């Protein structure tokens, strides 16, 4: 199943710099690993915001929840999930 996921990042200003850097490095590694596996199909920066729009391809709601709640930045993000299905007018073969 495909999901559109909007992640709005709000890291507290008073988080120590070392801790912030560690979380961001782990977040990047985690996200890139899932991208290599094909689970995290797309990630886009939202212009002008510390936020991203992502497309994840997972088995079900439970797997999506497991993946998102394990994000190192999870405690510092507002996440909005929208389930997707193939549009009847779609012509691309790889979007379902
Ligand atoms: O920077 C972000 O948008 C947050 C986050 C999500 C994946 C990743 O590598 O960073």
TrEMBL record:
Enzyme class name: isomerase
Keywords noted in UniProt: Aromatic hydrocarbons catabolism, Isomerase
Reaction catalysed by this enzyme: (S)-muconolactone = (4,5-dihydro-5-oxofuran-2-yl)-acetate
Pathway note: Aromatic compound metabolism; beta-ketoadipate pathway; 5-oxo-4,5-dihydro-2-furylacetate from catechol: step 3/3
Superkingdom assignment: Bacteria
Pfam families found in the cross-reference section: MIase (PF02426)
Any GO MF annotation of the entry: muconolactone delta-isomerase activity
Domain Muconolactone isomerase residues, every copy: 1-89
Keyword Acyltransferase: no
InterPro entries: Dimeric_a/b-barrel (IPR011008), MLI_dom (IPR026029), Muconolactone_d_Isoase (IPR003464)
EC id: 5.3.3.4
Stretches of the chain forming a coiled coil according to its record: none
Family stated for the protein in its record: Belongs to the muconolactone Delta-isomerase family.
UniProt cross-references to NCBIfam families, sorted A to Z: muco_delta (TIGR03221)
Subunit structure: Homodecamer.
Protein's recorded name: Muconolactone Delta-isomerase
Lineage start: Bacteria, Pseudomonadati, Pseudomonadota, Alphaproteobacteria, Rhodobacterales
Gene: catC
């Amino acid at each position: 199943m495909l999901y559109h996921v909007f992640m709005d990042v709000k890291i507290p200003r008073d988080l120590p710099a070392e801790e912030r850097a560690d979380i961001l490095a782990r977040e990047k590694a985690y996200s890139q690993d899932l991208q290599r596996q094909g689970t995290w199909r797309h990630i886009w920066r939202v212009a002008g915001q510390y936020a991203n729009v992502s497309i994840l391809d997972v088995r079900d709601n439970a797997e999506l929840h497991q993946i998102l709640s394990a994000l190192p930045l999870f405690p510092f993000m507002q996440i909005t999930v929208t389930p997707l299905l193939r549009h009847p007018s779609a012509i691309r073969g790889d979007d379902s």
